[in-house]
Structures are given as structure tokens and as C-alpha cells.
């Protein structure tokens, strides 16, 4: 049966050559018959890993083009390694090596395959040996000056980065980045690694990461656009300068970033890794500590430099009547109209009662609030 199949292939090949037909004009079934299977083994062992591929009869290939995946480390036979050459395996299922090598397989003086013209006959090859692929690590000064030699690395061998030799005036080197705009350090100076790539000739460029030798802290008063600065040595522990801003009716509560959340207290010790903008946090002398409302009434406060003002709102209200400590009437307001409680009353906790009236002068709600005034 095998002999008939081989003769059938030969006949079809001769017919194709004679009539100069294109394979594109033949059916899928015939095109399959016009190919041969080549098996590539990891080593001279029929049980070793192999790759099985089909090749068109009549085509000629250099050994590099025949199985290119094994020449750059990307193949599945041995990741990160390339075959130094291929040996024609006459009969992988037998120890008999007497079978002649076809004349269509060109062998060099070292006994390795140089090229193959595909004939109607399956073939087997095994790798003569394997070598690790070579890849490269390059270095970019990223704003600095100087030159560094490209590092040549081999698969399965640990490499160590050379000491940085780039310089940059006013900056100090902090490590290597994978991308020029990153801030996350990929490698420290003279770090080691292994197997960055498994493809022959691949490369990685590392970018120098620089930090300014000095950093500036910008202190914003956060109410009047005033700014003061403090220059410090980058990465060193420093003490934040004492706040010198003042804001009438408020006490200083520390420093925040642009988000407004507390970050540092006055005079705190910190380490900087670049310029920093800090914004003063201010606590009003007066504030609502707690409140009790119902029937759709809401109460809020608005502090100023001289007083804390209260206001209320209710969709059914005609007026609000305010009392402090239950007996002293502060006055009447309409919806959202403010009534002040002066800081001149002094520090303390004050109970505020608010009566809510409708247009018929009926009380429809009674609200209470506890106001704290704390003057330094």
C-alpha cells in the first residue's frame, strides 16, 4: 500500500511538472497528496520531543528556511535555544543506518543538512546540538550624559548589569526604568536577572532614573493665594518648616495635598523624592457638633472670621425662630437666611433651638443643634 502511495505521488509530481500546473488549480485532496511530512526531533531519540510539518513536493529549502523556529529559540523543541545543525535521520525506528541519503538532501562536510528539495518521501531529522540564544540589554541616559556598552546575555545564564556610568548635573542616579516616563524602578544599579527573552536577537532598553539632588516644598495658605517655599536635600529626612500663615476665625489644622485630605502635621519629619505642594488645612472657631432635625428640616453652618452663622430650610416653612440656650432669642429668618453667633461670646458649647413655622404661624417642627466655639 505504501509503495502504491509513493508511486501515486511520483506520478502526480511528474504530471504537475510536465503540464506546469499551479497547485492553486488542484483540489485540496490532490494538494495533500503532493506534500511530504518531515519530522524534526529534539535529539537522536524517537521518544524525544518532535515537530511534524508538511512541505510541498518540488520546493527547495535551505535548512534555515525549512524549520526557522528552531533557529531563533521560538520553537517548542527547546525554548531559548537554537539548533546548531540538523542530521538526516535515515530510519528513526531502526538501528539500521544502511539506507542511502536521497540526492535531494545536500549534506556538508560536517555531516549536517544544508538544503533539501522535497520529493514524494517523508523524512526525519534530529538536532546535532543546541546552543542558548543571545539577547541584549541596552542603556539610555534619559536626559543624562555619557555612553554605556550594550550588555550581551545568553539564555539560562544570569547576567549582572554594569555599574551606571551616566551623569546628570544636579541629579543623582536611582536605578533603571523599563520605560522612560516610568517612576517604578525595574532594576537597581548592578542588579542581576535571568532569561529576559527566549528569542534570538531580542533586546531591552533600560532608562536611567534621575532624582534632583534638591527638592522644593511649596506651602500654600489655601485661602489667599500666598505661597512660601522650603528647599531640602532629596531623600534625606527633613523637618517641615513651622506654619507662618494665619486665617482670622480659623486655627491651623495641618497640611494636605491637592485632594484636601490631611497629610502632615506642623513640623513633621518627612523624606522627599521630588517637589511637593502642601496646602494649609483650616478649622473654624465655630462648628456644629451635632443636630436633631425632623419633618423635612435641614440645618447647616457657615463659619467666618467673626462668627458662625446658622441657616435652615423646610419647603413648608414661612419663618424660623432661633434661641440660644433655650431662653435667649437670636431672631427670625426665612428659608436659607443666615443668623450669626458671634465668637465674642467666648469658647464654649451652645445649645441652639430652632422653631419652624408655617404660613399660618403654626409650629410644624422643632430642631436642635449643639454649636461649639473654640478660640485659641
Describe the structure.
The chain has 376 residues and is mostly beta strands. Helices cover 9% and strands 45% of the residues. A five-stranded mixed beta sheet has the order 17-16-22-19-20, with no helix packed on it. The protein has a five-stranded antiparallel beta sheet with strand order 23-30-29-26-27, with no helix packed on it. It has a four-stranded mixed beta sheet with strand order 2-1-8-5. Strand 16 (214-220) and strand 17 (227-233) form a beta hairpin. The N and C termini lie far apart (107 Å). Mean pLDDT is 88; it is low at 1-10 and 12-28.
Q: What is the topology?
A:
Blueprint: H1 2-19, H2 28-33, E1 35-41, E2 50-56, E3 60-62, H3 63-66, H4 69-72, E4 81-83, E5 86-89, E6 105-107, E7 113-117, E8 123-127, E9 130-132, E10 134-140, E11 151-154, E12 159-160, E13 171-177, E14 192-193, E15 203-212, E16 214-220, E17 227-233, E18 237-239, E19 250-256, E20 262-264, E21 269-271, E22 276-284, E23 286-292, E24 298-303, E25 307-313, E26 319-324, E27 328-333, E28 339-342, E29 348-357, E30 363-373
Parallel strand pairs: 1-8, 10-15, 16-22
Antiparallel strand pairs: 1-2, 3-7, 4-9, 5-8, 6-7, 10-11, 12-14, 13-15, 16-17, 18-21, 19-20, 19-22, 23-30, 24-25, 25-28, 26-27, 26-29, 29-30
Amino acid at each position: 500500500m505504501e509503495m502504491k502511495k509513493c508511486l501515486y505521488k511520483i506520478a502526480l509530481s511528474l504530471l504537475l511538472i510536465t503540464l506546469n500546473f499551479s497547485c492553486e488549480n488542484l483540489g485540496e485532496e490532490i494538494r495533500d497528496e503532493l506534500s511530504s511530512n518531515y519530522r524534526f526531533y529534539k535529539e537522536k531519540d524517537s521518544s524525544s520531543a518532535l515537530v511534524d510539518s508538511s512541505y510541498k513536493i518540488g520546493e527547495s529549502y535551505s535548512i534555515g528556511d525549512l524549520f526557522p523556529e528552531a533557529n531563533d529559540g521560538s520553537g517548542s523543541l527547546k525554548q531559548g535555544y537554537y539548533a546548531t545543525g540538523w542530521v538526516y535521520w535515515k530510519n528513526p525506528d531502526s538501528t539500521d543506518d544502511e539506507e542511502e541519503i536521497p540526492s535531494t538532501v545536500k549534506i556538508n562536510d560536517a555531516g549536517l543538512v544544508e538544503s533539501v528539495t522535497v520529493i514524494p518521501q517523508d523524512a526525519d531529522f534530529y538536532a546535532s546540538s543546541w546552543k542558548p540564544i543571545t539577547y541584549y540589554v541596552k542603556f539610555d541616559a534619559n536626559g543624562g550624559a555619557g555612553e554605556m556598552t550594550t550588555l550581551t546575555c545568553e539564555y539560562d545564564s544570569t547576567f549582572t548589569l554594569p555599574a551606571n556610568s551616566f551623569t546628570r548635573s544636579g541629579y543623582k542616579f536611582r536605578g533603571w526604568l523599563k520605560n522612560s516616563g516610568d517612576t517604578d524602578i525595574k532594576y537597581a544599579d548592578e542588579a542581576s536577572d535571568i532569561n529576559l527573552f527566549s528569542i534570538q536577537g531580542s533586546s531591552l532598553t533600560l532608562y536611567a532614573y534621575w532624582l534632583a539632588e534638591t527638592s522644593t516644598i511649596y506651602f500654600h495658605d489655601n485661602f489667599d493665594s500666598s505661597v512660601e517655599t522650603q528647599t531640602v536635600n532629596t531623600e534625606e529626612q527633613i523637618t517641615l518648616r513651622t506654619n507662618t500663615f494665619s486665617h482670622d476665625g480659623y486655627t491651623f489644622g495641618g497640611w494636605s495635598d491637592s485632594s484636601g485630605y490631611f497629610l502632615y502635621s506642623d513640623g513633621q519629619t518627612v523624606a522627599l523624592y521630588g517637589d511637593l505642594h502642601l496646602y494649609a488645612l483650616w478649622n473654624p472657631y465655630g462648628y456644629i457638633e451635632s443636630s436633631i432635625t425632623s419633618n423635612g428640616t435641614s440645618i447647616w453652618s457657615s463659619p467666618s472670621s467673626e462668627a458662625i452663622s446658622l441657616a435652615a430650610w423646610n419647603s413648608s416653612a414661612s419663618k424660623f425662630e432661633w434661641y440660644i440656650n433655650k431662653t435667649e432669642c437670636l431672631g427670625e429668618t426665612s428659608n436659607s437666611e443666615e443668623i450669626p453667633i458671634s465668637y465674642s461670646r467666648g469658647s464654649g458649647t451652645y445649645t441652639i433651638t430652632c422653631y419652624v413655622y408655617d404660613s399660618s404661624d403654626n409650629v410644624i417642627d422643632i430642631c436642635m443643634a449643639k454649636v461649639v466655639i473654640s478660640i485659641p
